[in-house]
TrEMBL record, chain B:
PANTHER family xrefs: ABC TRANSPORTER PERMEASE PROTEIN MG189-RELATED, ABC TRANSPORTER PERMEASE PROTEIN MG189-RELATED-RELATED
InterPro entries tied to this protein: MetI-like, MetI-like_sf
Keyword Iron-sulfur among UniProt keywords: no
Keywords (A to Z) from UniProt: Cell membrane, Membrane, Sugar transport, Transmembrane, Transmembrane helix, Transport
Residues passing through the membrane, by range: 17-39, 82-103, 115-137, 143-163, 201-223, 247-268
Species name: Streptosporangium saharense
Name of the protein in question: Multiple sugar transport system permease protein
Length: 313, 284
């Protein structure tokens, strides 16, 4: 097979330099044609709005009246607003709750699944929340976590163990934990499936060899499995951090951050300022701070990965 | 060299059982919200307050389903969600495959830079561009119209990235053979490359469909009229109106929104799970 295919590569003819340039030029046109729909869309719906957001962040405008330049006022106003401080703090807390626990749990389950029969069944069960809309997820969890007589979790724990749990959705300290639980539950299956696929690319001969050399299960996991799936782990970590920074749906449906400040995140702040109070400048400033935070954290992760992530090629 | 035991030892078998127990308990935690949703959807409101807690509906109140269906235009929302998702899939697949082909196989100046731009925009949260996008779309008269979801929705740098990986894996010799036969760029793309990346296209199609079907943020911002609402938007409005008082009805509404997707998932689970795994590995 391989021999047949390699034989088709045309030999370079002498004096073909000019034809090559002509082909190159025509290629430029073809490239433009193939790229046009996505590139035009990218410029129109992503790059241009991003630039527009930067401009808006330095203006005061409610969308209807006069626009006026206000310099850095929107940024200083946000950074000195206690509500924004709460939002940043809650966003960071949510990331620290969802990323390590969510990914750790997913890795644990994936490793366990890699060792048992009946993977398909478990994979399906753990994945069900991933195909469920975030709105339905929030509605389902509302009747589990609600305080008072409606919440099945607190009622059951009270009935069976006599313990009183916090009112998850009303308590300003615990609400972020509740949101983290819902977020982990709904994204767990995706990470399990991704990690399991990563684990299955590890050649069995590698773990076998380590075992023959006398390594116990923990040692095999630490010295073979972990380095082998570290690129996947890294990729998932980056994605998980970014998506935890963008969490909105479950918060919007599950709790009303206007009544419970403990659920106010930067994204909610952006929404609140932009679409409830029509302070477009303030909203854009808050959004840009979120973008800066996202870029910073992603860059730090890319810097740190060099020491932990192992690429074989 | 040491001797490898051939039979399965007792500790290993016990370990296997422990793993199954652990996974099953975890599985119950994953299933419980769905089960509780279904059970609650058959209860009357007063039944939720009974002490001790009633686990099963008594009596089973199936009436919640027609009631929920009658209270809001669900059939309409289904059609809206479906056709928007389908258009999203078609437009995204076609245009991203074209861009991916250019990045994978055509040499042009600025290719690396442009691709870098595509990757970089993935880090921009949707909320950063939402206000300007809203202003632009309202200038175009697309607010409270499905165009606001369909048109910007096809821009998908992730799709371009994923398909580029797939296209790069297609043997270049196939293309060269076609070129010797006189095929042009478009013919090569359409007849040679696309059929060879069908699994990748299928995987991506499923991911795009799911993301569109479940999306909430954009419909929430861009749509107002009830008859234009998508399924998640309708359920959230329903929960907002009836949530605190009529749980049975709200949960029936939620179940109506979940069940079709769940059936589709169970039928196509192998394909869906594999495509999700593929996307997570970055198409490697």
């Amino acid at each position: 097979m391989a021999g047949v295919v390699t034989g088709t590569r045309p030999a370079t003819k002498p004096g073909s330099a000019r034809t090559a340039t002509r082909v190159r030029n025509r290629d430029g046109w073809w490239a433009a044609l193939f790229l046009a729909p996505q590139v035009v869309g990218l410029l129109a719906f992503l790059v241009f709005p991003l630039g527009f957001a930067v401009v808006l962040a330095f203006m005061k405008w409610d969308g209807l009246g006069e626009k006026s330049w206000v310099g850095f006022d929107n940024f200083t106003a946000q950074l000195s607003d206690p509500a924004f401080g709460t939002a940043v703090w809650n966003t960071v807390k949510l990331a620290f709750l969802t990323v390590p626990f969510g990914l750790g749990l997913a890795l644990l389950i994936a490793v366990a699944l890699n060792h048992v029969k009946g993977k398909t069944f478990y994979r399906v069960v753990y994945f069900m929340p991933v195909v469920t809309s975030s709105v339905a997820v929030a509605v389902m969890w509302q009747i589990i976590l609600a305080g008072g007589d409606y919440g099945v979790l607190n009622r059951t724990v009270q009935d069976w163990f006599g313990l009183t749990l916090p009112d998850w959705l009303e308590d300003p300290t615990w609400v972020i934990v509740a949101i983290a639980i819902v977020t982990i539950w709904s994204s767990l299956g995706l990470n399990v499936v991704i990690f399991l696929a990563g684990l299955q690319t590890i050649p069995p001969s590698l773990t076998e060899a380590a075992r023959i050399d006398g390594a116990g299960p923990v040692r095999v996991f630490r010295s073979v499995t972990l380095p082998m799936i570290s690129p996947t782990l890294f990729f998932s970590t980056v994605v998980a951090v970014i998506s935890s920074f963008q969490a909105f749906d479950q918060i919007y449906v599950l709790v009303d951050p206007d009544h419970n400040d403990g659920a106010r995140t930067i994204v909610y702040q952006v929404y609140d300022l932009g679409f409830k109070r029509f302070e477009f400048g303030m909203s854009s400033a808050a959004a840009l701070i979120l973008l800066a935070l996202t870029l910073l954290v992603t860059l730090v992760q890319f810097g740190v990965q060099r020491r932990f992530v192992h690429y074989d090629s | 060299m040491s001797v490898i035991p051939t039979g399965v030892s007792l500790p290993r078998r016990l370990g296997g059982i422990a793993l199954h127990v652990g996974l099953a308990v975890g599985g119950l935690v994953m299933l419980f919200p769905f089960v509780w949703m279904l059970l609650t959807s058959f209860k009357g409101t007063h039944q939720m307050l009974n002490a001790p807690l009633d686990w099963l509906p008594n009596p089973w109140r199936a009436q919640n389903y027609p009631d929920a269906f009658g209270a809001l235009p669900f059939a309409n929302a289904y059609w809206n969600s479906f056709y928007i998702a389908a258009l999203n899939v078609v437009l995204t697949l076609l245009t991203s495959a074209m861009a991916a082909y250019a990045f994978a196989r055509i040499r042009f100046r600025g290719s690396g830079l442009l691709f870098g731009l595509f990757l970089a925009t993935q880090m921009v949260p949707a909320q950063v561009t939402i206000v300007p996008l809203y202003l632009m779309l309202s200038e175009l008269g697309w607010i409270d119209s499905h165009l606001a979801l369909i048109v910007p929705g096809y821009v998908n740098p992730f799709a371009v990235f994923l398909l580029r990986q797939f296209i790069r894996a297609v043997p270049i010799e196939l293309e060269e053979a076609a070129r010797l036969d006189g095929a042009g760029r478009w013919t090569i793309f359409w007849r040679i490359v696309l059929p060879n990346v069908r699994p990748g296209m299928g995987a991506l199609g499923i991911i795009v469909f799911l993301a569109s079907w479940n999306s909430f943020f954009f419909p929430l911002i861009f749509l107002n009229s009830p008859e234009l609402a998508t399924v998640p938007l309708l359920v959230s409005q329903f929960a907002g109106q009836h949530g605190a008082t009529e749980y049975g009805l709200t949960l029936a509404a939620s179940a109506i929104s979940v069940i079709p997707m769940m059936i589709a998932f169970l039928i196509g689970q192998r394909r869906i799970l594999n495509s999700m795994a593929m996307s997570g590995l970055g198409g490697r």
